[in-house]
Structures are given as structure tokens and as C-alpha cells.
Amino acid sequence: MINSNKIKGRMVELGYTQKDVAKKLRLSTPAVNQKINNARPTNLDEAKAIAEMLNIENEDFGVYFFA
């Protein structure tokens, strides 16, 4: 389960929108919104791509993606 507040906060820090994340994941913006808000599951490849985009260190991965 994604820690929505942490992900959203990091996106704001870096100036990214859900549309930017959607482009990176090659998904629609509504699909990304659902994933960030835990209404739809996120697979490991998607989580890795988000972590890479948001410069989330490996040691912090669990804090963001295993709430």
C-alpha cells in the first residue's frame, strides 16, 4: 500500500504532477491518481519507476511504498 501523503509530498517538493507520473508510467492520469490513492494496486515495476522519478533512495523505498 502506497503512503499517499509521502508520495504526494515528494511530488510537490520536486514539482511533479500526477500527469508527469502518468507519462513516466505510460498510464492515464486517472489510473495514476487511483494508484497513488490506493484505489488500484501498484506493481513493483511501477513502484520502482515512481521511486526513480522521485529520487527515492533504496533504504527509503519501504517508507513510501509499504505504508
Name some characteristics of this structure:
mainly alpha; 5 helices; globular
Question: Mind explaining what this structure looks like?
Answer:
The mean pLDDT is 96. It contains five helices and no strands. 13% of the residues are buried. Helix 2 crosses helix 3 (29-36). It has 67 residues and is an all-alpha fold.
Unreliable sequence segments: none
What does the main sheet amount to? none
Helicity level: 55-70%
Order of helices and strands: HHHHH
The coarse silhouette is globular
Briefly summarize what is shown.
The chain has 5 helices and no strands. The protein has helices at 4-14, 18-25, 29-36, 44-53, 61-65.
Write the layout of secondary structure elements.
Elements: H1 4-14, H2 18-25, H3 29-36, H4 44-53, H5 61-65
Helix pairs in contact: 2-3
